[in-house]
Every structure is written in structure tokens, then in C-alpha cells.
Amino acid sequence: MTGVPRPGGERNWPRVPYTGGLSDPADPADPADPADPAGRAPVRSVHHGDGVAFLAAGLATDHALVTSLPDHSEVPDLGVDGWRRWFTATVALACRAVADDDVAIFFQTDVKHDGRWIDKGHLVHAGADAADSHLLWHKIVCRVAPGTITFGRPAFAHLLCASRRLRLAPGRSTADVLPGLGEMPWSRAMGADVCRAVARFLVEHTATRAVVDPFCGAGTMLAAANEVGLDAIGVELSRRRAARARRLVLAPAPAAGGQKPR
Question: Is 133 inside any structural domain?
């Protein structure tokens, strides 16, 4: 889930060209193209590189962005104030990268630092505003059971969806509070239940045909997208996690009520 430019703008990573084959929505060989009679299975492409640099090129139409941006503890060289500026600017870049009618979705957990609360939901909203995007929804995800006292990180996370032009009618609402994260392939992952809820939203309420996660970590969102027939493109600065993201398959979802919030 990392991909942060080094202070001063220098980036020390091997540049990997984008070869996912999904950048041209009119390509008849594109496995996500509904005009393709072959009906191919969804594909996954994971690149070892810098997610911020990847976003600068923009995304194709019908590609949704779903990600979780790094916490300040992952980029200590920026300092907390520098990280806040970087975070808001990267959210704005991500919102600008998607097409007007597509969506950018962010999963973020607030942090407590130096006796103060840093609200990442606010930072996401500020970045979306800077990109002339608006929120379609803002959901809360329970990280632990309601009523549990936590230290360091709050008991809930934010899930926010933004778009420049898409609108959702009131009758297309979805649950505002998700009861748990679900399976966690690694400690900083988006939970599998969260990713599956996002994937269902994309299929049922948008024209998305591919999901892009520029800070994909172990690939939870990519695997959830493939489960519902969407192609997936990930970028990850860690070579080890990028390799894992290419092959991750989620465990079957438990029956309703079969798993406690984590």
C-alpha cells in the first residue's frame, strides 16, 4: 500500500511500463470489452512501481479507482504536516485521474498523534473538493465490535466514494455502516468484506469494467474485483507484496452472521 514519492520529488524505483492491455476501451481484444464474444475471464495486472507516478497518466473510461493511501508512519521523512499535504494532494490527483462519470473510492483509518486526532475522512473530502469532485457516499466500517475501547487507532474506518459527474438517486442507497473488515491478508489491508461491498457497488451502480488500486498492497481489492467479473490493475512499491498481489485469492465469504467484526 506504498508508493510515496521521496521528499524533494526523487523516486528510487525501477520504472515498469503499464502493459495491462486495458487502456483502450475500444480495443476488441480487451477481455473487459462487452463486445468481445469470447467472454473471457477477468484478468489481473500488478506492476512493481510508484502509484503516484502511475496516477499522473490518468485512467481509461470505465475504470474505477479504489485504494487506501499510506499513513504518516509509513513515510516518516515527510513529517506529519508534510504527509497531510501529500495525502490531500494525492487524493486530488486520484480524483482527477478517473473519467468524469467514474468513481474514486478511498478506505482510510484515522490516527491519533501527539494527543490529537487526524481525521482522514476530512483529508479525503478536502482532496476531492480540490479536484472538483463530490462525495456520492461516506460510510463507516467497524474495525472492532461497537463499544470497544481502542488505543492508537480508532475502532472504525472511513469508506468514501467521489465522482465529478456521476449522481446516485436516493433509491440506490447502500448501507452506511459496515459491521466488520473481514479477512485481512496483511496487517494494513483493506478487509475482504469491505472490498466485496465495494465491488458489488461498482457492478450494481456504475459502468465500471476494471478496478485500479495504485497502492494495492497484497491485492485484496484486486481479488475482490476479479470475483465479480471485473478486471483489476494494481501498483505496489514493494516487490514482495506485488508478487503476492498477482496471485492472491480470497477465502470464500462466510455465511451471514458467521464472522465477528475485526
Answer: yes
Q: Mean pLDDT check: name the lowest of 25-34, 130-139, 196-205.
A: 25-34
CA atoms within 13 A on the CB side of 124: 29
Judged by phi (left if over 0) then psi (alpha if -120 to 50, else beta), residue 94 lies in alpha
- Cα 167 to its chain centre, rounded Å, is 20
Among 262, 133, 126, residue whose Cα is nearest residue 193: 262
SS (H, E, C) the chain: CCCCCCHHHCCCCCCCCCCCCCCCCCCCCCCCCCCCCCCCCCCEEEEECCHHHHHCCCCCCCEEEEECCCCHHHCHHHHHHHHHHHHHHHHHHHHHHCCCCCCEEEEECCEEECCEEECHHHHHHHHHHHCCCEEEEEEEEECCCCCCCCCCCCCEEEEEEEECCCCCCHHHCCCCEECCCCCCCCCCCCCHHHHHHHHHHHHHHCCCCEEEECCCCCCHHHHHHHHCCCEEEEEECCHHHHHHHHHCCCCCCCCCCCCCCC
Does residue 136 belong to any structural domain of this protein? yes
User: Cell triple for residue 68?
Assistant: 487506501
Is residue 196 within 8 Å of residue 253, measured between CB atoms?
Answer: yes
Structural domain includes residue 196: yes
To the question of pTM greater than 0.90 for the whole model, the response is: no
- Assign residue 112 the CATH number of its domain: 3.40.50.150
pLDDT tens figures, 211-255: 999 999 999 999 999 999 999 999 999 999 999 999 999 998 876
Length reported for the chain: 262
Q: How many domains does the chain contain in total?
A: 1
